[in-house]
Write a structure and sequence with these properties.
Structural class: mainly alpha
Enzyme class: lyase
Membrane topology: Multi-pass membrane protein
Distance between the termini: 25 Å
Order of helices and strands: HHHHHHHHH
Helix content: over 70%
Keywords: Endoplasmic reticulum, Fatty acid biosynthesis, Fatty acid metabolism, Lipid biosynthesis, Lipid metabolism, Lyase, Membrane, Transmembrane, Transmembrane helix
GO molecular function, one term: very-long-chain (3R)-3-hydroxyacyl-CoA dehydratase activity
Number of helices: 9
Protein name: Very-long-chain (3R)-3-hydroxyacyl-CoA dehydratase
Radius of gyration: 17 Å
Shape: globular
Strand content: under 5%
C-alpha cells in the first residue's frame, strides 16, 4: 500500500468513527434526552468533525482523490457555513429546534456509509454490494431531510439576527438552495446510475 493510500485509509477510518459517534449519540438522544442536551453534547463534535472534512477540497484539488473539486467544495463550504455561522453562532435557534437532530441524523448516516465505503475500497479493493447500494441510494431519503433541516435553521437565524448584513447574507444563501439543491440531487442520481450500472 502506498503512502497516499495509507493516509487516505487512516483519514477515512477516523471520519467513519467520528460520524459513527455522532450517529449513535443522535439516535440515543431521540429517545432519552432533551433537544438542548443533544445540542450541548453534539455541537462541538459535529462542528469540528465537519471542519476536518474541509480538507477533502484540498484532496480533490491536488489529485489525492478523484472527486470533482466544485462539488466537493460546494458540499464542504455549505456544511461549514451551517456548523459555524448557524449552529455555533445561533444556539438559541439551534438548541431547541427539531431540525438540529434531524440534520445530524441525515448527515451522520450518509457520512458513516460514505467513509466506510472508502475504507473498504482502500483496504480491500472492493466494496460489499449492500454498502455500495446504500452509498448510492440512501440519499433519496437523507438528502431532503438534511436540506430541509439546514434551511429551517438558517431561516430562523436570519429572522433573529440584529445585523442587516448577516440577515442579507443568510437570505442570499437561502435563495441559493433553490437552484443548488436540485443540481446536487441530479448529480447524485447520475452518479447512482453510473456506479450501480457497473454492478
Amino acid at each position: 500500500m502506498s503512502a497516499k493510500q495509507t493516509y487516505l485509509l487512516l483519514y477515512n477510518s477516523l471520519c467513519t468513527l467520528l460520524w459513527l459517534h455522532i450517529l449513535l449519540t443522535t439516535i440515543t438522544a431521540f429517545t432519552s434526552t432533551s433537544l438542548t442536551t443533544t445540542y450541548t453534547t453534539l455541537e462541538p463534535w459535529t462542528r469540528w468533525t465537519q471542519t476536518l472534512a474541509a480538507i477533502e477540497v484540498l484532496h480533490a484539488a491536488t489529485g489525492i482523490t478523484r472527486a470533482p473539486v466544485f462539488t466537493t467544495f460546494t458540499q464542504a463550504f455549505g456544511r461549514c457555513v451551517q456548523v459555524w455561522a448557524i449552529n455555533y453562532a445561533f444556539p438559541e435557534v439551534t438548541a431547541s429546534s427539531w431540525a438540529y437532530p434531524s440534520m445530524l441524523f441525515a448527515w451522520s448516516v450518509a457520512d458513516v456509509v460514505r467513509y466506510l465505503y472508502f475504507v473498504f475500497l482502500l483496504a480491500r479493493g472492493s466494496v460489499p454490494d449492500v454498502l455500495k447500494w446504500m452509498r448510492y441510494s440512501l440519499f433519496f431519503g437523507l438528502y431532503p431531510i438534511g436540506i430541509a433541516s439546514e434551511w429551517w435553521m438558517m431561516f430562523h437565524a436570519a429572522n433573529v439576527t440584529t445585523s442587516a448584513l448577516v440577515m442579507g447574507i443568510f437570505y442570499f444563501f437561502l435563495a441559493l438552495y433553490v437552484p443548488g439543491s436540485p443540481m446536487m440531487f441530479s448529480y447524485m442520481i447520475k452518479q447512482r446510475r453510473k456506479i450501480l450500472a457497473r454492478s
